[in-house]
Amino acid sequence: MALAIAERRPEFHVEYHYSPTDRKLDLVGEMGAVEPAALASLAPELAPLELAQFPISGALATRIDLADGSSEGVRVDLHFGKGSLKSELLPEGALTLEQGSLHAVYAPESSQLRLAKLELDLGHGSLLTVKGSIDGITPAMVTRRDPGSLSIPGRLGITLADVPVNKFESLWPPALSRNGRRWVVANVHEGILDEAAVQLDLAVDPVGRSAEIVSAHGSMRYHDATISYFHQLSPARKVSGTATLNDKRLVFTPTAGAVKSIQLTGGSLQITDLGAPVEWLSVDLALAGPVQDVLEVIDAKPLRYAHDIGIDPAKVGGRTEAHLHFKLPLLHDLRLAQVEYAVKASLTSAAITDVAMHRNLTDGTFAVEIGGSGAHLQGNSRFDGVPMHLDANLFFKPKSEARARYRVNLALSDEQRRRLEFDFFPDRLIGPIGVDATYWARDGMRAEAELAIDLHAASLSVAEAGWKKPAGDRASASLIVGLSNEQITQVSDIEVKAAGLDGRFSISLTPGTGQLESVEIQRLAIGNDDLAGRVTRRRQGGWHIDVRGSALDLSHWIKQLDVSDARHRPAEPPLQIDANFGRVTLGPRREVHDFKAQLLRDGTDWQAAQIDARFPNGHQLSLRSGKEPGKTGLTFRSDDFGSTLRLFDLSDNIVGGRVTIAGQVSEMDGKRILSGHIDGESYNLVRAPVFARILALPSLTGAASMLAGSGIPFSTLRGEFAFIDDHLMLENLLAYGEAIGVTANGVLDLQRDRLDLQGTIVPAYALNSILGNVPVIGSLLLGGEGQGLFAANYRVTGSAGDPQISVNPLSALAPGFLRRLLQPNFGVHPPIPQSPGVQ
Questions:
Q1: Which of 167, 275, 165 is nearest to 213 (CA)?
Q2: How many other C-beta atoms are found inside a 10 Å radius of the C-beta of residue 369?
Q3: How many CB atoms lie within 10 A of CB 17?
Q4: pTM of the model
């Protein structure tokens, strides 16, 4: 039979068989090319057929028990032609269909409607397969004698195979995980969905003819997909893997893919809380590849991780294995603050060009962690070839003013310090040192560095203080460096500690220029020195040193002092010194107390000096010096002549007395000369072996015996002197007392400890002086001031410790004018101001 339905005339064939014994009717109906949509208007119950816009052919078989009008089973086998399937659930409202088939069975004995298979060919090899069942459909419900339960269970299995990923948007119903669908459509592109299978548990309302999804489970296989896992970051391409759906969680598990040249080695993308008002996406990706590419990925906006760390990805080499984590709500107006993110990575063979001080970092092996609060890097590398341990923190949302912290540990040998230009004290520090440096980057352009230096393996020496530390003895140093705009502005809390050394300092620099402004010495205890003070830049140029303390030992500094070429040294900046010490030591048992000094130097010349001090016995000494045109005048006074000579290590054979020296410093032939006049009084000469040998004449033995006792008293000392090139030259030096009188002319070589002196010794000087007062005959007999009627000429040459001494005994019996003829070198003028040579 053929019926006209719409524009088609499909054929219908019906076969039946009736069994009168049990009153059962078997029916088999076949149809061909029926348009279901054309039947929708025939009855309200057929209205849903309007959605099927394709021809249907097939057969329906059933058995009816005419006794009670019930069906004992139904089987439907249909085939679909080309067309489309309309549905409000579909994004485009319809689904293109090439062909399809349906096989379904109703079994009243089990009250189950089973969809054996619904298969739809979507074209281009894509296939949609649906299987399922509904339980609890009783025959009474089919005949509507009983409405049945308000909810009956159902199951539905849907499989989608060989579908291009770009076709997702037309297949994924918006009502099914609306936000998850939106994210997948927006971020998953290209590639092929090999197979997607989902199992749905349903709660079916037979009266309302509707169903609600109770649970959903599924799986998926795909390849060559492109996945954008975070806005503006490089996407993962050629991604292959699987996915699972478990109730309200959809998990993508990639097994291959790449981000730039970084290989995707594992991980997952999870969409959770499916169907909830807010669904969540969690991304965890395992990557392996070049460090540079990873840094470029995480340096993209809005993260800018590498930028914040201060690393240019273009300067970085090496490889990494990294794990990226993101978790975010699937919202239209997503903000970065709502994104939870983290990066964990291991770096090998890491290298950074021009990382600091125009030097490179190489051979790095690091572990890196990046999160919402900051980044942490830890590992080992080489800085310009020097092994180094690095521990760094970057704070994205600092609670304090610190934005980053870098801690560096390294050991430096002498050669490595020279190469890194850290060799500040090459003659004082020898051997390896350990450096523990912590760098803090603060707000704006401010920064701070804390350095702790282990000096135990190195040897240290400060020759000026007579102090040294052998390698192996404990010693350490620490300091804090303040920086602004990458320039040092202050060095504070400098501490140096070792046995016999305790120093605390701070340094201030001019912001912007880095020029040294001041050095604060909180304390410096080294060797026998214990002092504090401040060095500041003077407004008029040069420096001002204000130093004070309980003790200052200059004995070792004097040994290091070389003044022979002072005039040939480069001009130095002006220097002003204010010093105040409880004790100043120049050598063993050579010290003064209550030392106060004010000194001013301009270039290589000392313009002014004012020094006051006290000997341990309470006697005073002072020095005053001032600049005059072409020369510098000075005056030295001491209440203890003997202590003065011992202080300067000139002699320990003088006791007591007073002395005044008035002189001036001038230049001759490019050399500096100190010349002047000396006046002394009331002192004793004791324990003078050289002088005792001069007094060996029988006429002088009385005076010689006094040397072993309280000494030979002298009431007066006067004469001229000059000092040049470590040579002290004496002219017309006269010393006398009641017991003896002495004159001297000649040279003392202080550096070589040699002398060449000559003069006259007059015994019973008081008596001889009375004879000298006789007019005319007195000067004739005595020979001049300092001479005597009874006197002897002498000469002392050679080593100061054991000189050669000659005394002319005949001169002791000759009148003064004849004695002059017998004097050694008679007629030769004293050497002042020329520089003699002492043989």
A1: 275
A2: 15
A3: 10
A4: 0.68
